[in-house]
Amino acid sequence: MNRLIKIAAATAALSLIAGSAFAQVAGVSGASSTATGTAQTTLITAIALSATQALNFGTIVVPTSGNGTVTVAATAGGAVSTAGGAVVAPASATQTAAQFTVTGQSGANFSISAPGTTTLAGPGTAIQVTLTAQATPPTSIASPGPTVFYVGGTMTIPAAQAAGAYTGTFTETVSYD
Fold it and tell me: Which of 40, 74, 138, 170 has a beta carbon 3.0–4.6 Å from 118's, enabling a disulfide?
């Protein structure tokens, strides 16, 4: 009987040790760990475009025969050239290239999207203008301050064109690269 008590005591002790070990292993499976992540951003000034000067061909005398062309260069000075009988009137307003001003994040690169043509409507047949971009347009916003670019154009005027004022619009778009 003594022996039976010893076996029962030994079994109880082993059960106690095994249960404790099992509890410790079971505790490992429920262990956890945490880490903290970060979030970040960089904000820049929105890009904006404004038309600050119109493409102005001035006052043109309609050719007496054939077609005449008038070109305004896409430069700050907007140099004008004529051909085929088109003549700038002596009292004409100053001819100018269109000027656009870009503002935004200093030093940021941008691109320009532009139409190839526009149409001038007036009392006679609409006049198509082929738009020309500045030879070397800017590609980044100046630091400090705005950046400007110019758009010129060429129009053809037939001898039968009705006299009067002709106007049209075109849309330039800038976007960050």
Answer: 170
H-run or E-run covering 175? strand 173-176
The owner of tokens 């940021």 is 108
Give just the sign of the alpha carbon dihedral 163, 169, 170, 176: positive
Q: How distant, in Å, are the alpha carbons of 4, 23, 64, 68 from that of 157?
A: 124, 97, 10, 5
Cα–Cα distance between 125 and 123 in angstroms, integer?
7
pLDDT in tens, 17-50: 555 444 455 556 778 999 999 999 999 999 999 9
Dihedral sign for Cα 93, 98, 103, 107, please: negative
Cβ atoms 85, 26 nearer than 8 A = no
